[in-house]
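Exercise (ungraded).
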Amino acid sequence: MTGIILSVTAALFFPGIILRVKSRMSGRKGPGIMQPWKNIAVLLRKGSVISNTTSYIFRFAPLVYLSTILCAITLLPFPGILSFWGFDGDFILFAYLLGLGKFFFIIGAMDTGSSFEGMGANREALYSMLVEPAFFILFGTMAMITGHSSMQEIFALFHFSGHNAFIIGIIAIYLLIQVAMIENSRMPVDDPKTHLELTMIHEVMILDHSGFDLALVHIGTNLKFAMYGLLITNIILPAEIPFVLRLGSFLAIQLIFAGLIGLMESFRARKKLGKNPQFILALSSIALVGFILSLLLMNRMIF
Amino acid sequence: MEASLFIAPVLLSFVVFFMPSRIRYYYVLALTILTVAVTSIPACIVLFRPGEPVFMLVAGYKLLTLTFTIDNLTAFFLLVTNFTVLTGMLYSNGYLKSYKDKKGPVQFSLHYFNFIWLHISMLGVLMLHDGLPFLVSWELMAVSSFMLILFEAEKRTTLKTAVNYLVQMHVGLVLLIIAFLLCEAKTGCMSFDALQLYFKDAPNMGIFFLFFAGFAIKAGFIPFHTWLPDAHPAAPSHISGVMSGVMIKMGIYGILRVLTHVQSDLYLIGLIILVISAISGLIGVMMAIVQHDLKKLLAYHSIENIGIIGMGIGLGMMGLGSNNPLLAFLGFSGGILHILNHSLFKSLLFFSGGSVYQACHTRNIEELGGVIHKMPRTAGLFLIGSLAICGLPPLNGFISEVLIYFGFFKGLMEGSVYQSVALLLALVALVVIGGLAIFCFTKAFSIIFLGEPRTEKTRNIHEAKFSMLFPQYIISLMILLIGFFPLLFIQPVMGIIAGQFHIDPAPALISFTQILTKISLMGGLLVIILLVLLVLRKIISKHKIITTGPTWGCGYTAGTGKQQYTATSYANNFSELAAPILRTHTDYGEIQQEEIFPKERSFLTHPFDIFQYWINKVIDFCMLILKKLARLQTGNIQHYILYAFIFMLIIFLLLYLKLL
């Protein structure tokens, strides 16, 4: 429960900070921190235009998209607080819940019959397929180091595993940031600010969503960022420090994460779409390196 | 239970030919229900009542004695088979109506007769544990399914496919016969139970892999799968559903049955099965993505799912081999539950896909589109099947996959470094399979059902009849039931494993209960959040103006259905990426420089299965030799007598030289 409340709180200022950092970097003053949410509030109040081509799938998809993200967040623990959900292999459910959301998001886009959205949908399907091994190898590695397989226990024991934690932690944080960027269709893979439909992924898939449905998608995307922020927090924060400090560090980590995304998006160019698969597959190789490294560190490789 | 009840369906099946057309179907249905009831009752007793491990029935006749044995493994497969065959039978009436004008009553009778016999022979395969009766039912199963594939024999490709199928099935049969004979030579008895004796002191590997290869041809493990992608599309949809849903599982049943008797080298056998299965799963799903033929696509997914089942079984064997009961339970129960799950969602997909085929008269998904507007219920059912086959929560596919996943993670943490590496790679394979399945089914579902129609074929279609939808509703209900209440189903499955492999289920059950309870709770939470959001939208958008308009076209709104994404273009970025493994042939003439006014052009891609290519080469070569040998068939009675004489002479000589 703590996780979801904190994530929602973090999600409130997350997109605003990214925007603010990006505007500052490009020499503008930028909108207020709450501007993205004000936009969502406007959308919620608006009516909508629905394409003639679409069916019930189109109306249903954003609902599923948001609910799966909400469910996935409830699964995540917060350092030092016993979660109701913690069970062996919960991260599998976590990944597959997000997969369910993606499935509906993709068919929702395909429902419009637009070629633009077809492009976005099939890129989304390919990239999310390619990024998944990295996530699972990472969790396999952490499960192996700690000897446990629920997220709560993995994160709690991870900090006690000596220099393993340090090295694997760095790899894990790097991977999670990249995974978050890809899953949210952000910078090196996709540029949310591009205005050419041919080169977009996420934005092109919501071309026909409007009003309430569009608001749901935006809320979902914002929550997804905070969700990955919470995952990273879990890796960084040990459970022993006092609660207030943990709370403060959580907010600080989210702040830094948002700022980092803003900086990355300001100074990094989007990759050529054709090069994206290689980039994403490289993440899996990094995860594999982490796995082999941990085998070495645990003295399990005997020569 | 009377033995005659088991024999009754066999005799009653011949009456089909004398039934008038009007009541033929109802007679067949009643007969199927009778068969289902007769076998399901003892199966249920064995499976759900503890303390009743085996049900046995000896039917003795003058010439032969048949022993029907139902232990819990058989019972599980019996129930799965009965369910799928019954739903297939319910579906078949509506589906076959469209053939009324093309086919005569004899063909219908023959079709139903073979359908009954496919059912009976599958039950026989499961219940008969003695070698010879087992092999006879195995053969009957191949022959009856061969006849069923031949329903549209007027198509040349169907004929060729069916013959190819028959040939491959017999290669499998020969392997099984050899394996059984080896067993008999050593133990003097030809049955599965004699294997227990055989494995006690003989080397496992050789005979096990003979059995494995024989059963793998039926199950469709790569590289033995080559009959499958052709045979499923050639058969009518209800037959494809039954074939893919349960008939290929008979191969898995055989493998499991042999595995229960293997006593050493468990770990190595498990590892080998795991590797073969992972490869089957990966290649199956990759090949599925590039298909345009809906039923071929589903057929390749059968290979993928057989791979997943095999990964579970392989993991279970590794668990047994390394004395890790939890690992064994995770692997086997994931694999065995996936057998049930796959039979459900695959038959659902074949049935709903069959309804689309019947309405649109094409299996090429490139010609479809926008079918959801005309067939909303069929689309919904196909969607449920798609979500389930992708292993997405809260449906049934997820339950079995999560057990296998969890097994991989558990196995990673323990055992040698090689085990960790092997299981990590298997894990990656399963993850990739899952991701590719999502890729494939978002493609299939959206190209068939969503968007605008691509051709005229979808113009004048209407929703399938209730008689065809009804069995699909039942299957969907089962899918949801397993997804939301997995514990109900996992307990009998664990009972099977505990009984067959003699391991204590108690410690694993605690772990399973914890995981599966949380998963079903999460399913409930998901539904609740979904409903809350739905109500919220209803309330908020009550007074809002909701208008409709054309899809946003970037300023260009005169597009036609043909400009939409097609299956080929959707799969394009993947097939480019996988080009080193997947080969597709493209038919497209580039526009030449001297062509000032380019003519109409077409772009066609043909997926290419390298295994099929090579196996077909072998089969073609054999055909060539057989054709040459056909010269012996002169039609002259004198020649035939000569052959018989030569044969006797050889036998005599061999006996004389003490070679026989």
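Further reading is listed at the end of the chapter. For now, observe: Chain B touches chain A through 82 residues (CB under 8 Å). The beta strands of chain B are 55-60, 65-70, 546-549, 583-587, 604-608.
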